[in-house]
Structure formats: C-alpha cells, structure tokens
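Workshop exercise sheet. Pairs work together: one partner reads the sequence aloud, the other fills in the structure field after running the prediction. Swap roles for the next sheet.
Pair: D.N. / O.F.
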Amino acid sequence: MLRSLRFQLPALFLLAVVIAGLVSAAIALRLFREYAESRARAQAYQELGREANGLTQLYGQQAGLRLLSADRLELATGDRIFYQPRARGLDPFPGQRPAFTPLPRGVLSASARIPPRGRFFVFRPPGTEHKLLAVARPLQVGRRVFGTLVVAKPETVLAQRWLALIERLLLAFIGGVLVAAAFAWYLSRRITTPVLQLSAAADKVARGSYDVDVPSGGAGEIGMLADRFGVMASRLAESEALERNFLMTVTHELRTPLTAIRGHVEALREGLVTDEEARLASLTVIAEESERLERLVGDVLDLAKLDAHRFTVLREEVDMERLVDRAFTTFSEEARRRGIEYAVDLQARPVIVSDGDRVLQIISNLLANAFRWTPDGGRVGLELSATDGTVYVAVDDTGPGVPPSERERIFRPFWTRDGGGTGLGLAIARELAGALGGRIQLESSAERGSRFELVLPARPG
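Structure field:
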C-alpha cells in the first residue's frame, strides 16, 4: 500500500503543498509581523485617544455635577483610567473627586505639559508584569488645566490581534491542504488508472496473449506510453506471426531439397539408376539442392551475425564494373527462360574500397527480389553510376510495386508479401548495406514497378 504509486503520488504532492505552505506562511508572518504590530499599535492608540478625549470633555463640561463612578466607566470601556492632579489645591470636582486610580509616580511629572492632542506612552504599573499602552490628555475646565487623565489598555491586545491573524492563516492553510488533497487524489487516480491498466495488459503480453486492449492515456507522457505499448504489442504479435511463418517456410525450404536429395541418393544406392546420363542428372540435382540448402543456411547465419554485430567487413579495392557484370550474368539464363527483357546500363566504371563479396551479395539479393516479382515478359534493369565519391547501383523491375504501408515492412526478416520464400533477402541486403556504410533506397508505384537503389561511399568513412 505505502509503496504503491496511487499512495505515493498524493502523499508527495501533499508533502510539497504542506512544505510550500509552511515556508510561505513563515515568510508572510515575518514580512507582515512588524507591519501588523505597528498597525495594531496605531489602532489601539487611536481608540485610547478617542476615549480619553471623550472622558476629558465629559468631565470638563460637567465639573461640579454628580458623575459616573470610575469603576463603571472602566467596566463600560474595558480600559484602565488613571488621574493625576496637576498641583495641590486645584480640584475641578469639589467634594466628589472621581475615584480614578492615581497614576503611579515617575510615569508622568505632575507639572509636565501635556499637548491638547494627548501624549502616547507605555508604562508598567507597580506590582504587575504586563505593560500598558496609555494616552494622557489634559483635564481642564474652561481654560484652566487641573490635571491629567490617562486611559490605558494592556499591551497584550496586540498579541491577541496577532493571534487572530495566525488563526486566519491557519484556517486558510487547512483549507488549502484539503483542496490540495482532493486534487492530489483526483490526479493520482487519473495517472495510476491507465498505468494499472497498462500493467494488466503487460501481464497478458508476458503470458503470450498479444491481443490486448491498450487503455488510452490521453495527452501527455501517459498517452505516449500507451501508444508505444500498443505499437509494441502489435509488433510482438507480428513478430510471433513472422516467426511461425519463418519456421513453416524454412521447414518447407529445407524439406524440399532434402526430399529430392534423399530420393536420388536412394535410387543411386539401390542401383535403380543404371544409365550414365541419368546417374549424372541425379548427381546434378543433388549438387544443386545442396547449394540451395547451403544458401538458406548461409542467409540465416548472416542475419544472425548482423543482428549480433559479429560481422566482419573486408577492405579491398572493388572493380564495380566487373562485379555488376558478374551479378548480371547470374540471372541472364532465368531472364531468357521467362522472356524477361533484361539489360545493364554502365554509366560509370568506379573502383571503390569495400567488401566485394558482400556488395555482390547485396546486388544479387536485389536482383533475386526483382525477378521474383516481375511477371514473365516483363522488364528488369541493372544500372551503375557514380557522383561525387558516391556509387549508385539501381535495380528496376516492372512488378506490382510496393504499397506505402509495406515499404518499411519488406525489409524486416522473415516477412513476405505472399507468404512464399524466407523473407531474408531484402533484410540481409539492408543490414549489409548499413555495415558497409551505405543504404538502400526504394521508389515504387503500381504503374511503374519498383526501383531499389544501393548507395555506397567510394571510400570508407
């Protein structure tokens, strides 16, 4: 459970959100702390100033009348009220001094001049540990100042307002985490569901069942993975089909010459062939079928060596004119027998440095493919040219052409369009061309047939 992607994705996402939130909150608190405290202090002083102004006006206007007690005023305002006479013998409230708490000594001088707008200060009353924010305003009747009225409140109100800000940030943080958790859960489901489906499909493929329903991952990397998995499954299915076809084809290709060889050997061994001419014909058949078997086994071995990169390429001077003539002569008899128009066009006579036997094998494979698909009475052409240090050997035929969907597939091992042959000729030709530093190009259409062109460098790179 803890190691599953469905758990780890939202967990990591939430962890990142929590860390980002904590870092952001710490930075925000650090940046706004001084600003918030100064703002709260200014607001507290403003409130105290309004209260002090109202109280001094009230007592100044109603001097000598019966006023509210100080206890009631402190209870109503929630603040502490202090009073300090300016000098002895000056009493705006004869016979009914307001019972305000005397201002502690040393906080303000009795003779200190208090501006009309008030004085803002902080002090700690004796016997207490908490500081008070205070505003002092002159208490006057008419134009005569009798003392100072001080309204104060604990400095802890600043911390209370700061705590209120922290509570709001905490609520916002919790809300953000909940939203992030819901989004992470949805995101993990969105990502892991196609991954789990791909995993189930991979299990089926591992069991040899390639006909699987590949989930669509939509856009992005998951979608690309699903598409590639689908291509892989189809390629595996195709490879398995090609392997079965190859085994059947190779079995047939091996059995046919072996049957012929066995029949002629039995006839010769049992003395059923007594005529010298018939005996020579049997030996010829045995030799031809043996060569056929040797070619088939050689093709399989060449492909295996090329796939394993265990192929050795010789470096020698190769007369391309002689090599093309040799390849051309090999198929001359077949062309005459089938009535195929067969011609060679030598536009250049280059000498290159390469592996002559492998170049001849490539050209022979291309010619064999052309004769296989060209109908009787058609045309096959062989052309040699060279330009700027590059040699071109082209084989043209008037066969049915290769559809665009099959132009890459025909170079895969064991694949044939009609199910006949081994499907190794073109595959070996392309691999050999690549090993020699060249390539094979294909141009094809249903009207003109196909043109396979071998492109080789005159000198190895």
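Discussion prompt: The CA atoms of residues 50 and 135 lie 9 Å apart. What would you look at next?
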